[in-house]
Amino acid sequence: MEKRDPIQIYDARWEVSEFNQDEVSRLLESVFIYGKYLGINTVTIAKDARLAGSSVMDQAADLAMKAGLQVYICTDQISTTQSYFLALKVSVKNTETMGITITASHNPANYIGLKITVPGTQAIGLECGPLGGFSKIREIYHSKESMAVNDGGNLHLVNISDEYITFSMKTAGVTESMLNGVIVVLDSFNGAAGSVLYRALKLSGVTVMPLRLFPDGNFPTGAPNPISKGKMANAVSLAKDNKNAIVIGTDGDGDRLVFGDRRGILSAGFAAIPILDILRKTLNEESMVDDISYFSVFDPKVNPLALSEWKNNRIIPRLFRNGHSQIKEYMRDIDAVAAVEESGHYYHKLKLENQTMYGENSLVTILLFLKAVKNDLSIMDRLWNLQNKIFTTGEFNYSFKNNDIRDRAMEDVVNYFKQKNAVIKTESLEGVDLQGTVVYSEIDLETKNLELEENWYSGYFRVSTTEEKIFRSYLSSGDVNFGTSIEKDIIGICQKYEGKEVE
Description:
By secondary structure, the chain is an alpha/beta fold. It is built from 14 helices and 24 strands.
């Protein structure tokens, strides 16, 4: 039997009761051994609101000191994007810095985990990052290799919230009181991001109506995931009392965002339009040139109409696979200025003195969006006009008796699209595995000149990377009836294999 470990595709994550203290200690030891292979001499450690976070932080700090590292710890409950900023800031003077964020993102309260950055504030995943990233950590975890104990470790307690706000506002080009008149319903799901977002928005002049503002690792209203069905209903309802209010939701560790208003929640592809437009204009102003185009990365679920709008704003969309660490690595490879995942992750190229990172900064994303709204009050109407033009299924998932049956069902779905003469893609333009199958028709996704024809559709189909027996589907189309018909056919194939719909 294969030995178990807490390592997943993008990070390490587990139920608190699943691994004991010794196993967690071994995971952390493996992280520091991996770090020594990379020549690190410094580590930053931060945690979000998770109840188990303090215990894991205590273990991490103890091992880091024994490894002889310079250890910078923020003991406050902070977001993942603040933790990334901490690693970026420390890297300015200590370039060989590893960052450890203790979080389980949007998972329920009984989960805990680790997100890791290496020098360059580069996120790692499985087969992603130096020496294979978490794949190397997994190899060490199951080996007999032990960490050498060294003298010289030093502990530094830090609080970087003020610096994070200052950096984010400067990066977004937002000054104090600049956003006067903007109204925001902010739902932070009792996660770690709420307080710093609230402070920054108030400083920027925003009128904030908060929901679930205060951190509570029990997450009393359930898993802190704003993209789950119905999770933003209270915020949308509150916004109906003020037609100009913007709705913003963020997950438990603050690196996942949704935007909307009284009409509901926008898809990430459409919400990204004003963010990318403001970003391009700011970059062009800095370069003193008006006609520069920039690369932006999208995952296979972002709908083509949104991509067409990106292209119209001289943002060249580049298709890449799902995966937070993997997308950030690809951004680094092509020097993209931004990236968007339909799951609500927005990424930026961020600079601090001599350091550049590619990753999330939710406050920068929010401020860019609100800056666009402040500049053009009609932007929300235009985004909703776009969103109402298309049909999207959202992600719909089916569970099967075993993986073999699941795989046969997926094969039949792909064959269904082959019979429709759809374009079938399993790799990006650079030959990178998309970790699933992209299908599309009446669309040209492969050139800078993205074109949409009548009855276009685009879909992404894959097996779950974190759960057994699950097949995940996502479809968008320019016609409701046409899209609904295809969705029913896909569901029919899944039901033929006795698949059961799951969340």
